[in-house]
Structures are given as C-alpha cells and as structure tokens.
C-alpha cells in the first residue's frame, strides 16, 4: 500500500513540476495562433479560440524573417563546416603525426577553452571592423572558425582508429591527406556528427557576437531579429511569439528527435 | 564513456591532469555522455573500471590493447612540417581572435580613449582604481545575486527532477525529454516568451496572482522584481541542460551499486539521498561550475528584457561591459576592457577551482 502511494505521489509531483516547465513551450505556439484581442484579455486566455495564422503572416511583414532565417542557417552552417575542417586537421596532427612539443601544443589548445568570448570581444570587434567586415557574413563567422572542443573530441575518436588499418593504408602508399579523406573521416562519422550538431546548436543560438556585429536588419540573425521584432512591434506580443515559435522549430526538432541520434553518435564512436 | 578513459592519455599520464577539468566540462556539454563517471573513477579503483558497461549496450567492446610503441623515432622532420601545416588553420584563428585580443584588452584597459574608442593617453591603472566605487560595487553585487539566483534553483531543480525520474517509473523517456525541452530554446526566444508572461496588464503571471487574489506586479519595471524576473527566465532556460547532464550521470552509475543498495533495503528517498546523490558528485559539481560560468556570461536575457534597468538593478558585469563599449552613445573601450579583465579573472577563477577539486577527486575519491 505504501509503495502504491509513493509511486502515485512521484507521478503527481512530476506532473505538477511539468506544468511550469512545459507551459512556456505550449504558450509560444498557442499564442502564435491567438488574435491580438485574445492576447490582451485579462485574466489571460490560455487556449486560442481559433487557429489564426495572422501573426505568422504579419511577422514576415514586420521584419525580413526569411532573410534572417537564411542568415542564421548560413552563419551556423559555415561555422560548423569550418570548425569540423580545422578540428579534423588539428586532431589528425595530434594523433597521427609525431612532432616536438605535441603535448604542450595540445595543452595550449585546451587552455583556449577557458577564455570567455565576452571578455575579449572589443579587440575582435576592432579587428573585424578594421578589415571592413563589420555587418558582413565573414565578420559573423571568422572568429569561430576554430574551437578546441571539436579538436579534443575528434582526437579522442581518432585515437581509437585501428593501427592495422592505418598501417595497411600506409603500405599501400596512401598519403596523409588521402588517408584522412577516404578512410579516417568516413569511419569517424559518428564523432563528426556529434561535434557538428553541438557546434550547430550553439552557433544557431548565439546572441552577443551577432548583436554587435550586425548593423542592418538584413544582416541580423534570427536571434537578433527576435529582439528587433520585439522593439518594432512592441504593442503586438502575438508577433513576438510567432517569431519565437518559428525560430525554435529546428532546435526543438533536434532535442525531441535528435537526442537519441546525438547519444548514438557518441556511443557508436566508442564501438569502433 | 569508457573509451575516453581507456584510450586517452588524459587519464593515465599525470602531467595532463590540469586539463581534466576542461575535459569533463566540455564533455558533459554534449548531453550524451553516459559513462562520464568513469573518467573520475578509473584511476581511483581499477575494479570499477572493469565493471561491465550496463547503461550503454553498444559499448561492450573487447579490451583495448596496450598503447602501441612508436613506429619511428619521434619528431620526424617531414611529419613535423606537415603537423604544423595541419595545425595552422586553428593556430591562426586562435592567435588572431584569442591571443591577440587578450593582449589588446590589457593594452586598452591601461589607456584612455576618444569618443569613438581610439586609445589615447596612457592612464595606468586608473580604470581599475575607479572600480572601487559604489557604482561598480552595485554591478558586482547584481552579478553575484544573479549568479546565486540562477545557479542554486537551477541545480536543485534539475537534481530534484532527475531523482524523481530515477525512481522506477513508466514513461521515463517521455518525462526526460519533456523536462529537457527548454534546452531547445535560445536565450532570445526564451526572453521573448517571458516578456509576454511579464506583461503587467495581460501577462500570465499577473493573471495567476489575480486568481489568487493578489495585486499586479510590475515584473520588469520595478527595481525589486526585475532581477528576480531575469533569474526566473534563466532558470527555466537552463533547466533542460541541467536535466540532461545529471541524467547522463545517473545513467553511468553501475547497476551493481543499485542492486546492492536494494539488497540492503535502501529504497525510494533513502537510496536517492545516500546512493544516487553522492555518486552524482562529479556531475553536480560540474553543473554548479558550468552554471556559474554561464551566469557570469549571461547577457541576452538582460538585453532583451530590461536593458540593465530599472535604475541599473539588472546591470551585471557583462552588461556593464557592453554598455561602456557600445550602449552609451560613446565607445569607452578603456573602461569596458578593464571590466572585461575582471570578468576574465572571475571565469578563470571558477575554472581553476574546478581543476583543483576535480584533480583531487580523481586521485582520492
């Protein structure tokens, strides 16, 4: 009897705790469908009376949302590809090439993780502006072309690569670059995708750098666009919610459907 | 993730230990590191490392062979050259956008500047001396309050959720994903949603207060509640991450430990408190440090919700840096850089504490 009560109370507590956690998730979509008058009632209305798409339509008039979506995709995509490339090359050097001070260099690589971007943004802002790249795609992505976390994770993955395969490739006269491109990288897809997903989500959600790096709404990323939307349509919270709902769809899909995929990415790397 | 340990020199060579902290910190950042526990226990007790991997069925590979001897004398000339070619892209980026900025921040902090931020005369440490003022004191106090108000509820909340999830319940995966959902929200989207909640005339929060017979609260525009509102938004936003990190930690607790506890009659809250929580130590500690570092860098929610106001009551260190650098219509890069160095120092201090504690845990736990 006591066990039953205990179990029921666990479910009860969990469900009660779920309400405040999930309510914002629910409300961003519910509010998107509500008419302005429904959002302005007090006490607030929690369920939309009709599935109106007015807010969604108006968002596209208020700010160049598609363009911002594109900017975010380009920024996050380019950063992800660039980081995968620089990390893979560096990790290859650390694992397969012998050179003096390899351990020291790797330690220095890791120590770069300790410096918060918010502490060094002024010189970076000056550098990028000095190159005439303020308010440009290159300015948005350049400082993030390398990140030691990717190098670290790929190094872990490369280290497990079977010696026999590497030796066989070498006996066959395969050079380093070809070996990396045709053998090593295809066999390390799980680690590469784990790094890729991680980098993509964090650059998709980036706020500080895109804020100071963009001047025109046409160059803003989605995250900065949400702030512009809030300022431009300060009387229309329905538009903010519609913008937020649209902006969160890709990452929401990744967390719901990709959670397992990310886990598999890392553990599959462990099996090889 | 046992392969990390077995293969990685990080666990076996003493000289690498200072970087173990980075290893842990960065690894847990990805929500899927079920074997993290092993990193901290493998050197401490060989028996536990040898325990079968119960949580990840795919991970039961044969034991790794011992490290292979080098095939050739180290530092082959051609390889050294090629290695630096491969490292060059990363090194160039780090040098340009990390190392050089560090030096230039120090330089800027020691100089005055004109109205568009160009450094002028050398002012020595006067930017730092100015920090002993009531104004900067309140910035530091706000930063501290914000950090505490985010880290404590965030970690306690995530721990409570994970412990409840860990008791044998159905639909565990559904609950875990549900609690992890806020992880998908960027700081901008979360802030925008909460801005709607905080609306004094039509927001949901005042609606609830109204139902309870309480008067409306000016969530974002009164000095008493603005910081609290920012904290609430941040706690919600961070909860998903905390749940993912701690759930990964729970997954790495060996099944035998729980079975032994069950045989000894430890169930429910007792098992949670005496078995799970102590074994979650490394993840909890990691979560506290990361949450602290993240809180010290929290910016978007303040920029969107309060712009540092009202009357500076939500101006944290990062926001103050931003304001000095850009928001006052002038670019006071000198003062902003000096404050940025304070921020850098705080984050480095957190990392150093993390290294120190984790190193001790690795050796003596």
Automatic annotation (TrEMBL), chain A:
Gene3D superfamilies, alphabetically?
MetI-like (1.10.3720.10)
Any idea where the ABC transmembrane type-1 domain is? 69-258
Which top-level group of life is the source organism from? Answer: Bacteria
Kindly give the membrane topology term recorded for this protein. Multi-pass membrane protein
Where do transmembrane segments lie in this chain? 9-29, 73-97, 104-125, 137-158, 179-201, 238-257
Give the record's keywords alphabetically.
Answer: Cell membrane, Membrane, Transmembrane, Transmembrane helix, Transport
Q: Family membership, please give it.
A: Belongs to the binding-protein-dependent transport system permease family.
**Protein name from the UniProt record:** Carbohydrate ABC transporter permease
